[in-house]
């Protein structure tokens, strides 16, 4: 046990922080990947979990763009972020949320998609979102909302972010039963599962030292 603790302390002490430029480039990269996944899901009329999932639900029942919903729904969570995760994490998360909100709305101006198989769109979209979120997590940022709570629980309670997010996301998707068709709902569950599987497999304390 002692050797494990000593190794953990040594890993913590040997961490090399990312530079500001590295953080900014990672946030831009991560949000571009996430927002592209969001575009695929929206094109298929699918749903995902977390704050983005709520944004999709609101988009489908209103005329307000997804980006506006996503940015607005995240606002109440920044207080928790400041109190529990600090200003640096909160500012980077705010930037990430703002960029996803913008990128999700401008992608269609540059990419025109033909009709997509919903299972293909949700699988690829979910995996892209998971990869983009992983980039953000590793640079001490998130996409706000439930991501903030998930990261807090992992850092302070030892509950894996991916495991917690998976449970919450499945609940949100099931709640969309009356809004999307059964095939789209099933495809959405698969996409959300793959998103969180990527995070659960790759985002663990002390595995990534930077």
UniProtKB/TrEMBL annotation:
It holds the Pfam family YitT_membrane. InterPro entries: UPF0750_membrane, YitT. The keyword Membrane applies. It is found in: Cell membrane. It comes from the Bacteria. GO terms for cellular component: plasma membrane. The chain crosses the membrane at residues 20-41, 53-73, 85-106, 118-137, 172-199. Keywords: Cell membrane, Membrane, Transmembrane, Transmembrane helix. Its main location: membrane. Signal peptide: none annotated. This is YitT family protein. The lineage of its organism: Bacteria, Pseudomonadati, Pseudomonadota, Gammaproteobacteria, Oceanospirillales.
